[in-house]
Request: fold
Amino acid sequence: MIQTQILHEAPFSPHRLNKYASLHACGNGRIGIRGCHEEAYTDQQRGMFVAGFYHRANATEVTELVNLPDITGMRIELDGESLSLLSGTLVSYQRELRTMNGELYRELVWQSPAGQRFRIETRRFVALSPLALVACRLTVTALDAAAHLGVSTGIDATQTNSGRQHLNERSVRVFDQNVLQGGYDTTDGQQQAMITSQCRIPSGASSSFSAKNRRLLQHISLPLPAGEAVTLEKFSWIATSLDADFLPESDWSSRCLASLSACAQQGYGHLLMENTRHWQHYWQDSRVCVTSDHPQDQRALDFALYHLKLMIPAHDARASVAAKGLTGEGYKGHVFWDTEIFILPFALLNAPEQARKLLEYRYLNLTQAQEKARRSGYQGALFPWECAFSGEEETPEFAAINIRTGQRQRVASAMAEHHLVADIAYATVGYFQATHDREFMQQMGLALLKETALFWMSRAQRRGDRLDILNVIGPDEYTEHVDNNAFTNYMAHDNVQAACRYLRECDQQDAAFLAQAEDFLAHLYLPQPDEQGVIAQDDTFFSKPQCDLTAYKSQQGTQAILLDYSRAEINEMQVLKQADVVMLMHLLPEKFTSGCLSANLAFYEPRTIHDSSLSKSVHGIVAARSGQTAQALQFYREACRIDLGEEPHSSDDGIHAAATAAIWLGAVTGFAGLTYQSGELHFRPSLPPGWSRLQFPVRWRGACLTVCLEPQQFILSKTDAQPLTVRINGTAHTFTESLVLKGTHDEN
Ligand code: IFM
Reply:
């Protein structure tokens, strides 16, 4: 059994309710359930989400991932007193997420205001298989004297997305005095959800049911003999109209009842054992192991891989990864470049078929992207900056209101943050490099590459002898509407180059396209490093004044600078929200020297607040690649703390999916220096101080590799005997089963 790190919450604090609801979420890539307590607390935000289940509440709102009716809530009454950790006395408390099997576990002793002590244990998990199953268990022991237990639980459709109600209750029923079922339609009638729940209650318990005010509940009442543990189990089946086996109403209802009953019969313990088996396969195949003087490093990696499993919808190409995964309402559940650039590499090198699905998601939305390009006056495909289910642009028109001015700030990303187009092409190339999946290339990849390339070719403007890309927002969202953002130009160039290459290789020559593309490649302006090795972020960046960011850096992640300056003012200063040129160095490191990486890191980092969670990790990777391992480790650990740090509200509306994936990226592409974009597997190992071993698996063109780095040696092994060529610090090595190299660490 692989004992991955447990994520503890201790002690209980009402201030951290929502942070831990996000961190302690359970899920399986299809369903995500926030790790809320069974009993209610005023500020606690419950949440259950299904990947791809989006809806727009009304014309003034944006589409969002629907917060579905709640099934985990329980009102627990002990001798007539409602359990609340804010009343009575909390004698002992322990809550932990068991990443090794996906179970959220809580054990506490509570002394009620009347002075009676009870031991309470709650457990829950979302099954990895079947993907519709959720299991919960409550065990109560009266420690002092016999008592009475009352539990009310069921399906609570008063749940909203922060007040926005997406669902109409279509039907509620109780079957056989035992099973609850609620049928819900989105208010536009386009999607349906069917939730079925059933409790296994001890003999001697009595039960009644109620359906009132959108709550379908079972009320269970039973005696608690002194010192005897009493257990209640609850199983739920979450079905939606997105499911492959979705059926017309009555068949659907009975199918859900039958599926749930078959699982419930097995009982919580057996189902948990099955779930443990599935999670153990996952850990066996994907775990990154680090031997470090800092136990938090392994904990961060286990946390990241746990949540990566929860966020990637491996079952359905119509859904992708939301910016908060399925752990909260943040960013409305929309999909950003975070997926292709931060999350997809993990899928690609561990379960490539999942990376293929993420790209298929974009391919399925190609027509909408072509339409967006047309509407904006361009050719090819302009993918929406924020995407949900329809493939349309979902970026809200306005950001949150500024309560001092009463003004809403327009969000310009949908109009100008176009680098996403090249990011998708970049991921397409990476997928092909790592898999040589020719069928994908023929069916989807070439279309993605060509349409994205056509976009750039129409987007660039000829000024004199060169082509410029004007009026864009690069990754740094504090700098808007600039010309020749270096990141965008280099990535666009890479995009068009890849389109030409693969169209030629796949014999899909289109003479007119290739001629136009060659002209684009020859003339697109690619800003070069200056004498210090620094590349200008855009045409005007160097002419802007630098300002002291100390105060803002100390509050990074909070966007505190927006309280002191308007966006227009920030735009005129050398202030970065997040990695931009440094991001370019991360994605296309082979285009720049190690000295150039260091120079840009040194120049841009003091000007970067890291107000985006996508920033720190990338600085860490570039620092590692340029041999500055101590600095890299510092960035890495700070990036790990975005969700795992002490800040009580950092993750209230969901974990940061990209930052979570970047914990894996930092270890693998940073400290092991793994790259694959150019076609071969490259390593540039640079273990940081305090790390004596780093080991992780890689799937590469059908082979299963294990990579192991130690300070003085680098070991690669694989299970098949096919020769494979890899590059270590630039030197090619061909091996069959294993490769052991001494003294490989990059000293530059
Ligand atoms: O995609 C990011 C963007 O780069 C910075 N703001 C948040 C988005 C979602 O994570």
Remarks:
- DSSP finds 20 helices and 31 strands in the chain.
